[in-house]
Amino acid sequence: MKLESVITSDQIQNETHSSSKKNQSMILACIGVVFGDIGTSPLYALKTSFSLCGLDANALNILGITSLIIWSLLLIVSYKYFFWVMPIHNKGEGGLISLMARCLENEKSEKMKRIVLALTFIGIGFFIGDGMITPAISVMSAVEGLSVYSPSLANYVVPVSLSILILLFTLQHKGSFVLGSVFGYFIVLWFLWLAGLGVAQIIKDPSILKALNPIWGLRFILKYPSGAFLAFGGIILAVTGCEALYADLGHFGIKPIKISWFFIVLPCLMLNYLGQATLLLINPDYLNNIFYQLVPFEWIPFSVLIATIASVIASQSIISGIFSIVRHCIMLDFIPRLKIKHTSSDYIGQVYIPSINYTLLILCCLIVQIFQNSDRLSHAYGLSVVGTMLITSILLFLIIKKNIFINTYKRYLAFAIITVFIMIDLLFLGSSLIKFFEGGWVTIVISVLIYAIIDTWISGRKMIDNISKLKAFKIKDYLKKNVHSEKRLVPGTAVFFNRSSNIIPTSFDTYIQNNPYSHEKIIFLTVHVTYQPRTIPSKNMTIEEIHDNIWSVVVHYGYKQTPDIQKALKWFCENVHEIDLQNIQFYFSQQIFLVGKHPFKRKVQRTLFQYLSKISLRSTDFFKIPHSHLIELGAYTKI
Description:
By secondary structure, the chain is of the alpha/beta class. It has helices spanning 20-34, 36-39, 45-53, 59-85, 96-104, 110-143, 145-149, 157-170, 181-202, 215-223, 225-235, 242-247, 249-252, 254-282, 290-293, 300-331, 354-371, 374-403, 408-433, 440-471, 475-482, 506-514, 565-575, 600-615, 619-622; strands at residues 341-342, 351-352, 488-497, 517-529, 541-547, 550-557, 584-594, 630-638. The longest helix is centred in the first third of the chain and has 34 residues, at 110-143.
């Protein structure tokens, strides 16, 4: 069933007709960026599934678990994401923020808005938790091949893993724009290596192909229901990184992602899992590190090398994803403003956030030190993966609930299918929670902390806005009383930044009360970031002349854009009213918050908000206002 009514008139750019060479390079880049995470899952998914369920590696169990892994790839990735999630985009963009925006379209219920935002923030917490664990488990799983080559090297797994992670994070400031073309070749080589290892085993015992029949998965569930329930905690690891398919939709478009998945990635993954299962049928004792048992002994060093490179690429992709989603949250004022560095002049989405980078580095290294091996860490990893998937399914349900299908039959059929997805996600979630005290707590702690930061920041900003509205005058009322005061006019333009376009900013009141002069032209400038990924500021400027030579200007940006104040003023000068761009004075109000006496819970939250405000980048630095044209006025506010 198609979601024809979901797709807007804005078609994804990458689906337009293009040359064969361009399509090939796009597919190569797509494989390098999108599929690194799910491509490293064979390192640990099958062995973790057996480890969690505690069952012997006999024929039924091997066929059953392998069948469940393969059908998880088919149902969750191939069907759920490609045919249900990805068509619901936001002007070609995917990801949690896009789903949130679609849920909030024309939504009038404040209660529903709060629910959608809360779900999104929880999902962001799970996604960032995933990003902290992915580098640790991927790199450790790859390096653990050293112990298969020589047991004496087992003690070097943790130090080598830590060294690779430290190198990975310290090089982030260089940027990741090379991911697409250069890394794509390595990931293609990795998938071909996976397929080759699998085929080499399958030809020894083709009976393993019976696992393609889902009946074997059902037999396993019916015979060992409790064991199967526990095994789902490992099976979920086979679909890690499926969120990347949706998150990177805007970078590549659905066509290259589909071609990459169905013609390269999926077949190679299935062949490798079937190869691992074949080897277990031949010798169940190989279960401990089944992936590297596929590799001929003399090829293990090469396999460790290529697996490590693939793991680094997978880690790089998720780290870049975290930088992107944090930047989007900053633009939407969900979290404090942080220093953002653009690492590529060609790709505006390539960003580096130093504070986030080093936080991830410290936490990744701590995770490696605490868990010591990939088996233990997999308990935490599964929970972060299924948490993000569950939030995606719930938001998808809410979107469909609104008005996607006109036909009643299709509407109820869609509800039924999405409900099944949610039930499957809940099954995976329940299985992952069983191991809460053995590692799952890490994901929960990270998600709760992220949610607390976002909720505290948003609540605090609303509180400050309410305080400002109570104290401030409406612009037009204020100007009637003060604009005709006898003041000496000086050449030039004064620009006052304002969070709300209808009230007087504190900086302007201070300016009027303390200066004997006034600029010839005055602009009240408000920057408004929408839930759309992109806008054209020159076509999305709300301009009102509220008095002679006094304007209220609201510039609208999308959450994926970087506000350019100078460019907006230049457009104003060329199309609305001429101003001297070299003779502009910018005025900002810098608020300093003081926490008053409150009950313990409220005091903790407001103290956290006070701290977040201190570390937040100043508006003047965020908007890159030249210091030579800047006057910043401080004000204390009691909260």
